[in-house]
Every structure is written in structure tokens, then in C-alpha cells.
Design brief:
This protein is 80% helix and 6% strand. The N and C termini lie far apart (182 Å).
């Protein structure tokens, strides 16, 4: 065998080994791509219902927010109406009620003053000793005789 033949055989063996390694690498790459494709298909199968549920939840939340907004608007209207009513009642009845109360107070004081003038109150005198109250000495009228 000549040197050219040996070199040709070596090159052929080298290329056979290289092609074998490339074939193994391509087979593993194909397996990885199949697994990746299956994983993406599974994720898609699970993600679509999840996205539908999320979309439904967002729609429901939007409906609830619209209801709360309507309630808040109604509450604001009721509050302003109650404030206006309170102001109206205070302006309408506030002054006359104060006058009636003052008149009643004056009448009670006048009646109480007349009672005090008619019947003077009996006041008992007491001597205060720290810790207790002792009635004052009673004056007794002694009969002479």
C-alpha cells in the first residue's frame, strides 16, 4: 500500500467517525425538538382554559366594579340629600325651638321663684366635723312653771 492509499483510508475512517457523531447529535436534537413540541402543545392545552377562566374573572370583576360605582353614586346622592334636609330642618325649626325652650325655661324659673316666695324653705343648720355630719344643737323651748 502506498502512502496515498493509507491517507485515503484514514480520511475515509475520519469522515465515517465524524458522520457517526453528527448522526448521533442530530438524533438527540430531533428527540429534544419532539419533547419541546410536546411540552409546548401541553402548555397550550392547559393555558387556553386558564386564559378563558381569567377572561371570565376579569369580566365578572368589571361587572362588580360597575355595580359598586352605581352604589357609590347613589350613596353620594343620598348623602347630599340628607345634608340638604338637615340644613333645611335646622333653618326651619332651629330658631323657633330655641325660642320655645327659652320660654319654657323662663316659665319654670318664674314658677319656682313664686313658690319660694310663698313658702320659705326650712333650712336646718348642721355642723360639719371632718369625717361626719352632726346636726346642730336644737333649741327647745322650756316651759316655765
Amino acid at each position: 500500500m502506498s502512502g496515498g492509499e493509507v491517507a485515503g483510508i484514514l480520511v475515509a475512517v475520519f469522515w465515517a467517525i465524524l458522520v457517526s457523531f453528527l448522526a448521533v447529535a442530530l438524533a438527540r436534537l430531533a428527540q429534544t425538538l419532539r419533547a419541546t413540541t410536546k411540552l409546548v402543545a401541553d402548555v397550550t392545552d392547559q393555558a387556553v382554559p386558564l386564559l378563558a377562566d381569567a377572561s371570565s374573572a376579569v369580566r365578572s370583576a368589571q361587572t362588580q366594579i360597575e355595580r359598586v360605582d352605581a352604589i357609590a353614586t347613589d350613596v353620594q346622592e343620598v348623602t347630599s340629600n340628607a345634608s340638604a334636609l338637615s340644613t333645611t330642618v335646622a333653618a326651619t325649626f332651629g330658631g323657633p325651638l330655641v325660642k320655645v325652650a327659652a320660654f319654657g325655661y323662663g316659665v319654670r324659673k318664674a314658677i319656682a321663684g313664686r313658690r319660694d316666695e310663698e313658702a320659705p324653705a326650712k333650712t336646718s343648720r348642721r355642723t360639719v366635723v371632718v369625717g361626719r355630719t352632726v346636726p346642730a344643737a336644737r333649741t327647745t323651748k322650756r316651759k316655765k312653771g
